[in-house]
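Archive record
______________

***
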Amino acid sequence: MLALLHTSAVHVPVFDALRDAAHPGLELRHHVDAGLLERARRDGPEAVAASVAAVLTRAVAEGARAVLCTCSTIGGVAEAAAAAAGVPVLRVDRPMAAAAVAVGPRVLVLAALESTLAPTVALIEEEARRADRPVAARTRLVEGAWARFEAGDTEGYLRRVVEAADAVTGADVIVLAQASMAPARESTTARVPVLASPAPGLAAGAAAARRVRPSTLGHPDPGVPTGG
């Protein structure tokens, strides 16, 4: 069984649908705590470390063989608690970050939430060091998008994200820093690859839960070109 730690309930049907399409038979158990993101935004991600560890402990007690954190803001905190949890704990955006580094050095990170920017850039830089590849990550906050998300205006939220992606220049690849931004990938007319985290993140989580490492781990789109 793979447990998923979410900070918004909107992710539950998204990951259930991805499971049904690509990983039939994989049991998912969802843990949703919106308060974790609220506290992390207010006090910093480390402020929720104990609460995240408690969720991981509960997930393992319920039978989880791995845990996937779908919130980019607290993903690093979740990963850091893996040793204590005793099972693999993955952040949903790590495979996406690895794929972005493989495409080219000029990475543009789009986020609707400011607290997501720094953790995502740090992750991309970490993956670049691991791959021994150069990277120059820039960030852009999609102004007004998060307010629409919080108001339940999903269409308006995604429209803002699409507009921001379409306006990007001077980048080799665009990274959609939050899982909730993923549907915008289907509508953008950007001329460079636009990467989203849910599908490759779930693939990594499924592999960890099944103790199998797929050859494409870290490269969510086999068709995405690589190279500098």
Summary: Residues 212-228 have pLDDT under 50 and may be disordered.
